[in-house]
Amino acid sequence: MKPVSRRQALTLGIAGTGAIAVGGGGLLLTSSLPFRPETGGRLEEPVVLSSRGRLLELLLEAAPGQVTVAGREASVAAYNKSLPGPTLRLRPGDRLRVNLVNSLDTATNLHVHGLHVSPASNGDNSFVSVEPGGSFDYEYDLPANHPPGTFWYHPHHHGSVADQVAAGLYGAIIVDAPEELPVTHDRVILVSDISLTGTGALRPPSVAERMIGREGETVLVNGQVQPVLSAASGDRERWRVINACPARYLRLQLEGGQLQILALDGRRLAAPAHVAEVLLAPGNRVDLLLDAVRGTTVLRAASYDRGSMISMMGGRGRATVSGTVALLYLDTSGAPVGALPPVPSTGRIRDLRKEPVAAHRRFDLSMGMGPGMASAGMRFTINDKEFDAGRIDETVSVGSVEEWTFSNGSPMDHPMHLHVWPMQVIQEGGRKLPDPKWQDVVNIPAHGEVKVLVYFDTFPGRTVLHCHILDHEDLGMMGVIEAR
Ligand code: C2O
Ligand code: CU
Ligand code: CU
Q: Which ligand is closest in space to the CA of residue 464?
């Protein structure tokens, strides 16, 4: 593997912010003041663009620019000048047309994370490259039986995904169910993180941050810090929480209320479930239901240890912990009003364990020291191979069910993500799961093993399987899957 060069480490995929100067002596920050976000504003939600007559057509421009982030002007990259980008609202059977315009100074493209659509030609094709100044017309046809739920979009140009997402490029996609649920408010809660200097410029990650996966210093909820919502007693909120952070894990807990899960990664559970916490790895989504009760409820992410590279760095380095952070406050007042009817259960969830398995595959994840490299050089591999867009790593048959085993030989967690087809998790750490559990990002704990089933129901074409710690993906932990 080639070493991470200073240039790579500094490239942000956006026009010069003026905040960094590289001389013979190295990197100088012209401003060493910390970024001071405004906190406690009322929660805002991104603009919603909805389909009409089975079609949603839009222009999506990825561009560097001045955008309000946490109440301050910041020089970031954004879609259509807003962070997050617009929310795209669709129905099963709709067509989505996106004219992606690249006004960045590096190549980009677009990925619709979790949508069950074709990966071929101008569909959800991660091999497309849209050069600076160029544009590309994407067209996605959602099947009539597409699961309703919460999905998202972000760039997927190999080598700069982490830089572009960390700079501010992401937005929500909602696929609506034909029938509405009894909730008072249905909201997008897009969580991202960003590192800004005191003047609002992006702070580039260090080489070490790239190796472990960069975590932004400021955690944003819809581009704000610790926003506040108010509700009346008896209201029921549906929060579509999206983890758009490049590497941060969100171990969600609710203080002063009960956490209730409606859906995971865009797929309903059989019935809403009460849990103490839910872990969102990068890329995961959870739809929460909150029955508002008088007082203040806090949605927070508790600290999560995602491993360490101590042993690999010759005893140096430390554990990588996504720290505790308060995300969102809900203030509820008033006397309870008539309760809403319960959210109906969906009934039976598909269970692939009843289907014949056509093939078994293993994916060994590892982080190894690169050949001839000192402390910084590291190889991020799947089955000992780094990503090569020109190679097909696995060929699967359309119409078949496969059992995949992910085995993590490294001392850090890796959240594995497959495009197009969701995965049914059947075994975690030697423990068989009693109920069907569907996800499109599945965390493989450090030194752990997880088994999943995948049904390649349709959509021939080439796509990817990768670690959703976006720096790891950019550094090579990605493989090519072809369905025939
Ligand atoms: Cu959300 Cu291939 O990524
Ligand atoms: Cu994806
Ligand atoms: Cu990883």
A: 1
| Under 8 Å between Cβ of 61 and 146 | no
Q: How far is CA 138 from the centre of its chain?
A: 20
* Per CATH, domain 48-175 is 1.10.10.10: no
Cβ atoms of 183 and 240 closer than 8 Å: no
pTM: 0.92
Question: What is the predicted pLDDT for the residue at 16?
Answer: 31
Average pLDDT, the chain: 91
| Dist CA 315 CA 258 (whole Å) | 41
Q: Looking at the domain that runs over 352-483, which CATH code has it been given? A: 2.60.40.420
Q: Pairing state of beta strands 304-308 and 319-322? A: antiparallel
- Evaluate whether 88 touches 96 at the Cβ level (below 8 Å): yes
Q: Which atom of ligand 1 is nearest to the CA of 114?
A: 1
Domain locations in the chain as residue ranges: 6-40+182-333, 48-175, 352-483
Asked whether the beta carbons of 463 and 112 are under 8 A apart, the reply is no
Pocket of ligand 1 (CB under 6 A): 111, 113, 154, 156, 283, 417, 419, 464, 466, 468
E strands of 103-226, at which residues?
111-113, 135-141, 149-154, 171-175, 185-194, 218-221
Which pLDDT band, with edges at 50, 70 and 90, does 196 fall under?
Answer: very high
User: Right CATH number for 6-40+182-333 from 2.60.40.420, 2.40.50.100, 3.30.450.150, 3.40.50.2300?
Assistant: 2.60.40.420
